[in-house]
Amino acid sequence: MNKVGILTYHHAINYGATLQGYALWQTVKKLGYDVEFIDYRPIKAIRSYFFNRYFLTNITKSIKIENFLNNHAKQGYFRTHNNAQLKKKQFNYDIVIVGSDEVWNINSIRGFDKSYFFDFVEDTQITKLSYAASFGRTKSLDEHAEEVSFLLNQFDSISVRDFNSLNIVKNECNCNATKVLDPTFLADYSEIISEVNQKEEYLLVYAFNLSPEEENIIKYLSHSKGLKIISIGYHNKIAHKNLVTVSTEEWLGYFKQASYIVSSFFHGTIFSIIFGKSFTTLSRGDKSIKVNDLLGNLGLERCIFSSKLNIHDFSEKNMAVDYTEVYEKLSPQISLSRKFIKEGLHGKD
Q1: Residue 291 contacts residue 304 (beta carbons within 8 Å)
Q2: Can you say whether the dihedral through the CA atoms of 272, 276, 281, 287 is positive or negative?
Q3: What is the pTM of this model?
């Protein structure tokens, strides 16, 4: 049985990051491979997660996310914290995959980390893949273009999850790439989701640092639909209930049971679609690139709210989602995404 190592942001204190990692792990596992996360946790990222005013909250979240990974996935035995340590380790993988998430965002808190381009994998017999990797808000590689291009040209197969990343790979690195779905669209959550004990119907908010305009649209939706406001993952003053440190399993349960969802996060939007919910996505600057890309493909641009919109005009446009049409558009993309993974894993066979 071939052994597969996944390099991603599995340890991030973020439900979406955790679930995208789990989803890719589960997808590869179900194809019959021995798969685990390469347990790489850069010091820069750890400092960002914990050395801030949310320290105690993030400690609690981190423990629950770690429990989730230990219970439902597999992490590598060796834990490393920088590129030099990775290069010293002797990994016995036949295949390595980087992705998904913004693993190639060279303008993030992690900076330009060559580890996510597999510079530490020197054995040419090891198959290198990317799955749904993203450059995030990075628009150009600038001074890193030559090095990134060299590293990506060592890959056997490349896939990305948005058009911005596709253009960078093709135009700046002269590599072929396939655009695929985020792996969360491919997984089955029935075995890990927790049922929640919430009798009243509710509007679920998965967002932080709400602007006055965003608070107003949430309160408007809550009032017009007769729903209580529950905020998950973050504290919001307009919520009737705040659930800041739920487990990943409970997070899924609250999404599944919600009557309406408002989120500023990419994966908040994805799980609204997965569970067939009416939803509103809050547009947030550069972070909106990937959300706009996804919703544009599915004909759901009307579900995006920006502060430039009038509340009443927005409410008229944001009708209930026809998921028959959405799933008709998603189905071939899911098939293509699964095909990419299956064929990529065959590697050099």
Answers
A1: yes
A2: positive
A3: 0.95
